[in-house]
Structures are given as structure tokens and as C-alpha cells.
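User: What would this chain look like folded?
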Amino acid sequence: MLGCLVAGRPLQTDAVQVAGDKFVFRLVDYEQLSHLVVLLLGTVPFPPGTGGAVYFSFPGPEGGQVWQLLGFISNDKPSAIFRISGLKAGEGGSHPFGGMCAPRAPGSVAQVGVSVEPLEQLVQQTPVSNASVSTVEPFLLFTQRMLDSLYNFASSFALTQAQMSPSPTESFIPASCLLRWYQNFQRRLAQNPNFWRS
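Assistant: Here's the prediction, encoded as C-alpha cells.
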């Protein structure tokens, strides 16, 4: 049902169900992380009228766990990117997990908790301020416009085979090849806006 993704690591789908409507992922060596993505896998949606409040938990300086609300996901917003690098110094807040935590392991382990709650309640909650959800829309818009510009520029030089004159020093690329690349790039960008980083 849920997944947790951190750059450079495999997608985690092994959430521990600590209650009927609460799930926890473990993140080893969390100090190195700056962002994480929490997403619905598309196999099982949230029940109608509900979504998932996303919490981040890390070991507190005086023992115990510090829990902070990052935001939420829903069937209409099935994924979100959260910044976690600045959370370590912050104060903990109220959370629905109580003592229901995934088993602790030695070393540096944090937890990402997802609590299924009514959407009316989720939209009224205030996430911790320095966990602002990263936005990728401006980047996607820039990339789309850049691809359009490249395709339009290259297409302006298109010639039919009848118009071509032999030129041993020039290479010609079929416009259909560029169009295929353009469509493939758009599809991959829609699936994962950060695919180009790998």
C-alpha cells in the first residue's frame, strides 16, 4: 500500500503495521538524508474520505523518540517530497503513535510513520515549518519548455529526402528519432521528476 523512497536507496515497501491504521518505516543512518518521498504504491488506495498523515521520528537527545508532522498524502495526492535535514534540532509534537514503534535496531535509526486519518482533520494540521514539502512544478515546467524548444529548433532544420544533397561532412538524424526521444523523456519525467539524477 505505502512506499518510502530516499535518493540512492531502494524503494522501501516493508512498513511495519503497528496498529490497524498506522504504519512505520525504519530509516537507517538518517543523519545523511536530506529529503524523503512517501507514496501510495497504487495497489490499495486509502479508504474514501481519508489520507495518511506523515510523521518523522528520530532519537531524542535525552532518550525516547521525537516525532514531527511532515504533512500528508491522499488518493488525490498520492506522493509527497519532504525535507528532513533540518528537523533534528526541532522540538517534538503530538503524534498518534504513542509507544507503537517499529523494533529498534542498534545504530542511527529514524522512523517514518503514516497514520490513516480523515481528510478534514489532515488539512487542518500544521506540519513542522522546516519540513516544507519540496515543489518540483517549476522544474517540470522548465524541463517541458526546454524540450519543446529543442524539438522546435531541431525541426526547423528538417528536410525531406528529396531536398537533401549529399554532404560527406554532415550527419543527419531522422526527426522521428528525436520525437521518440522527446516522448520517452516526457514519459520518464512524468513518472519520476528526478530520474535524470541517477
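The helical segments are 119-124, 137-155, 175-191. If you want, I can go into more detail on any region.
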